[in-house]
Known about the structure:
It is built from ten helices and eight strands. By secondary structure, it is an alpha+beta fold. It has two domains: 1-42; 48-256, Ribonuclease Rh, Chain A, CATH 3.90.730.10. Bound molecules: 2-acetamido-2-deoxy-beta-D-glucopyranose (2 copies). One 2-acetamido-2-deoxy-beta-D-glucopyranose binds at residues 92, 94-95.
Amino acid sequence: MLLIYLAAKENIIQEGWIMRSYTLVALLCLGCGLGAASYKLFVHEWNKLILTHHWPQTFCTMESCHTEFGYWTLHGLWPDKGDMCNSSWHFNATLIEDLMPQMKKFWPDLLHSGPATSTVFWKHEWIKHGTCAVQSETLDTEHKYFSKALELYSKLDLDGTLKTHNIVPSETYYMLDDIEGVIQSFYKVKPKIQCYHPKKGEQILGQIEICFNKEYTLMDCQTSEEDTINHPNDILSFQPYANAGFIVCDRNIKVYYPPLKGKP
Ligand SMILES: *[C@@H]1O[C@H](CO)[C@@H](O)[C@H](O)[C@H]1NC(C)=O
Ligand SMILES: *[C@@H]1O[C@H](CO)[C@@H](O)[C@H](O)[C@H]1NC(C)=O
């Protein structure tokens, strides 16, 4: 089935035979009774959930915002495949009203941090990633999705783990191995650690991803072959988040983990 799907996809890309390819696959699927399985392929069945934390001071260095969050906050919970899976499943803030105190504290919108609560960031995360996460029964409502992300974030306590192991914001630089080593020896899995590179030879710690399988067991974020490629991060696709280009930190350049700046 996978081969047929891949062959069809090739056709689509190479020749633009969109209708013909879909029809072909649909017929084959009906024929072999695998309609449900192929449907899953089309909607990008995912196998891994990526819990992404960002360091607010670095984000605000990139985006010229001001932040008072001196701990790692949530960026998102992302399935490893698919984005914007269901445009008709709208975000509704009322459905997660009970989670608001935690959302504001642990998943703040760093760009819109005025007195009025902005739901722009959460809406974006829901549309882009939540609507794909719903494939899992454990995440098949908006409330389940956001509460699971908060639960994983608090159980993991990445911020606490780093502090306990003396990885703290500092004017003294770190090597990537120091930071990665602490995370890896504590959680027993490989994280993905990303930096902002303001200029050549400089990097600022920005984002840390920790990965789970569908059963919420921790797993390595990167396979060894992926390790060698510098993936541009999942870049938020609307302005001004779109500038937020984090790239996997370079092992050979010292890492700046910036302390929280006071009010300007
Ligand atoms: C998309 O979302 C709508 C609204 O929640 C829902 O009724 C529909 O079943 C969803 N479609 C898929 C393919 O999940
Ligand atoms: C949002 O959810 C609430 C609670 O279920 C419901 O009453 C309201 O109509 C929904 N709003 C929209 C725009 O769908």
